[in-house]
TrEMBL record:
Name this polypeptide is given: ATPase domain-containing protein
Pfam families according to UniProt: ATPase (PF06745)
Sorted UniProt keywords: ATP-binding, Nucleotide-binding
SMART domains hit by this protein: AAA
Occurrences of domain AAA+ ATPase (ranges): 27-202
Protein origin, superkingdom: Archaea
Gene source species: Halorubrum yunnanense
Amino acid sequence: MPHDNLLSIGLGERDRLNKELGGGIPRGSIVLIEGDYGAGKSAISQRFAYGLVEEGASVTMMSTELTVRGFIDQMHSLEYEMVKPLLNEEMLFLHADFDSGGAFSDGDGERKELLKRLMNAEAMWNSDVVFLDTFDAIFRNDPTFEALVRKNEERQAALEIISFFREIISQGKVVVLTVDPSAVDDDAIGPFRSIADVFLQLEMIEVGNDIRRQINVKRFAGMGEQVGDTIGFSVRSGTGIVIESRSVA
């Protein structure tokens, strides 16, 4: 039976991820997906985004790494076709261009206050679910945040951002943040870990010559059915996310 308060991530016929996560993501929640480089953060985010759109939710995806073309190509390689949802405006994709004096710098190349500009970009917050992938890159490229970090006031900066996110989720929306914990100070990421309604830690484990990935469910407030502590998965070209039933010893 579907839960009214859950946004299904769908694809029940293709993988068991929605079932493993208890039927979907609770509305009005902050979701933190944390993992080192290569752990599968982007792939899991892309799987979530595709499934949500398939289930009728509107989605914004901001990527600090992929261009629109790169995003479409990567989704295509995972068999998550995104051209139609993009054309139908069910999916809004934004590329955060830090390097070429693009969207996040002014005419003379000076970096702007990224977080403030994100908060003021109303169109991106209109969707049911907003992904910021990877959120730590936005942190690291924001001169205002950098200045606070130099004064050891990163917690204060984080709390200001969190209060903005709380305002967004009070409307029943979902904000999904992906973070590489090795790229940002623990003091900066700590407040986000504390307030996340759903906190998923991704890790890669070497077993012999095999690399296995797993989702460690650290917190899942407002879950539907029971959610397991660990979910094994792999990322396969031409297939997408595959849930592995084997457990990691």
